[in-house]
Every structure is written in structure tokens, then in C-alpha cells.
From TrEMBL:
One of its GO terms (molecular function) is hydrolase activity. The lineage of its organism: Archaea, Thermoproteota, Thermoprotei, Sulfolobales, Sulfolobaceae. Pfam families: ODP. Residues 32-223 form the Metallo-beta-lactamase domain. The keyword Hydrolase applies. Gene3D superfamilies: Ribonuclease Z/Hydroxyacylglutathione hydrolase-like (3.60.15.10). InterPro entries: Metallo-B-lactamas (IPR001279), ODP_dom (IPR045761), RibonucZ/Hydroxyglut_hydro (IPR036866). This is MBL fold metallo-hydrolase.
Length: 251
């Protein structure tokens, strides 16, 4: 089982987009997850901080790029345990961080056991711009893909699109790679998840409209591997090819 160091996906001046490493043995505890850090000067935003048991790996790797107290935004795609399980720990080490989450989940999150007072900013259904330092990220609505209150995050500087659970791949034992090379082969590891978890074809159509006019250089999901170059277009076409998902398939 390999331990992978963080990898800088984009760097220009003091703006970086970083994949925060992985220990392949994490799959023994739960589904493998990716975390990403957007560095903007000496400040940063953490995308889907992850579950409780990945905290130490993510924390140590964030420290290679910025001071934890300079994490100013904890951005969440949705409410699942693999997304928010480390939230309490992050609130302790990043006392200046604001939590950004869907207005649907804001009142549920304090059940993790933290004092919400002023620390959560609700993202309205239509999305919002989130200022980090001098740059901003855009919360892009992706409702029912799979959560009812679901956001992706687009970085207009790097043109990297964080897609949360969309694009998730679940690998068989012993298989893992960071960048998608053979798209057709990779699609096999994505299909079962998307057929069952995405809510319906209508959710896909709404999402396709949202991303149609975005200039996307790379799509980085919370599970599985990263799409860049030609694979960005191939991925969006593949999502469009899913004629029936979720409720469409339920009897
Ligand atoms: Fe999820
Ligand atoms: Fe997930």
C-alpha cells in the first residue's frame, strides 16, 4: 500500500491548487477520498476536508503549504460523513475558518458537537461567490448530484472544477491512479456509483446547463481520479450519456 505526497495541480504566482495526498491503506477504514487546498497568498480554502480518520494526513499536508490558522474557508459539497467527519477537528486547528455549506445542511452540522455561532455561512440554492484572499471561488449548484443541497466549486484562476461526488470512481483492491488516462476503462469504475446515487436524469440536465459555459481545464472529484485535457470533455459527455439514474431506475 502506497502513501502519496501532495501534488500541485496548478501554480501561478501565489495561487495554487493542491491535491492533498493519499494513503492507499485508508480504504481499509472507508472509501478513499481526495481533498484539495486552494492557496491564495498566505490564505487557503479547504475543499471537502474529509472524514475523521483522514484528518491527520490532510492536516500534515496542508501545513506544507499554509499555516492551519490561515485556512479561512472550509467549503463543503454536501453533508456526508466522508465529507464533514473531520469538521470539529478543523474548527480547533483553524479558528479563523468560516464553514460554507448548503442552506439545507446548515442546521444539521452542529449535531457534530461544535458551537455554530457565526461560523457557518449558508450557501443559497443559486450558489455564491466566496472570497478567499484576493481571489474568489464560485459555489456552483449541483443539486441532487447526489445530495439535495449540493455544490461544486470552480476556481476561475486555475480553471479547476471540484465536482464533489460527481466523477467518483470506486476501484477494486490494489488499483489506484491519480490522473485518468484510459477514459473508457475508467468509466467502468464510475458507472455503478453514478447509476445508484445520482437522483434523476433531470438533475443531470440541470447540471449540464450550469457547466456548459464554464471554461474548465480540469475536473477534480472527491473520490477516484482527476480528468484533464481531452478527458474533461469526455467526462461531461459521459455524464450526458447516463440516460437513467437513481429514481429513473427504481421500481
Ligand atoms: Fe456523498
Ligand atoms: Fe463522497
Amino acid at each position: 500500500m502506497k502513501v502519496h505526497k501532495p501534488f500541485v495541480l496548478y501554480e501561478d504566482g501565489d495561487h495554487k491548487f493542491v491535491w492533498l495526498g493519499l494513503d492507499e491503506s485508508e480504504h481499509e477504514k472507508g472509501i478513499l477520498t481526495n481533498q484539495y487546498l486552494v492557496v491564495d497568498g498566505d490564505k487557503g480554502a479547504l475543499l471537502d476536508a474529509g472524514g475523521y480518520f483522514v484528518f491527520e494526513r490532510v492536516y500534515e499536508n496542508v501545513k506544507e503549504f499554509i499555516k492551519p490558522e490561515n485556512v479561512v474557508a472550509l467549503l463543503f459539497s454536501h453533508q456526508d460523513p466522508d465529507v464533514i467527519g473531520s469538521l470539529n477537528l478543523w474548527l480547533d486547528v483553524a479558528p479563523n475558518a468560516t464553514i460554507y455549506a448548503s442552506v439545507l445542511w446548515e442546521r444539521f452540522l452542529p449535531h457534530l458537537g461544535f458551537e455554530a455561532g457565526g461560523r457557518i455561512t449558508d450557501i443559497p440554492d443559486e450558489g455564491m461567490e466566496i472570497k478567499i484572499n484576493k481571489d474568489s471561488l464560485n459555489a456552483i449548484p449541483a443539486h441532487f448530484m447526489h445530495s439535495p443541497g449540493n455544490f461544486h466549486y470552480y476556481d476561475p484562476v486555475s480553471k479547476i472544477y471540484f465536482s464533489g461526488d460527481l466523477g467518483a470512481a470506486v476501484f477494486p483492491e490494489g488499483k489506484w491512479y491519480l490522473m485518468v488516462e484510459d477514459f473508457q476503462e475508467h468509466a467502468k469504475y464510475m458507472e455503478p456509483f453514478h447509476r445508484r446515487y445520482l437522483a434523476s436524469r433531470k438533475a443531470i440536465d440541470l447540471w449540464l446547463k450550469r457547466v456548459k459555459n464554464l471554461d474548465i481545464k480540469m475536473i477534480v472529484p472527491q473520490h477516484g481520479s482527476i480528468f484533464d485535457g481531452e478527458n474533461v470533455k469526455k467526462f461531461i459527455e459521459w455524464v450526458n450519456s447516463l440516460d437513467k439514474v437513481g429514481l429513473d431506475l427504481m421500481e
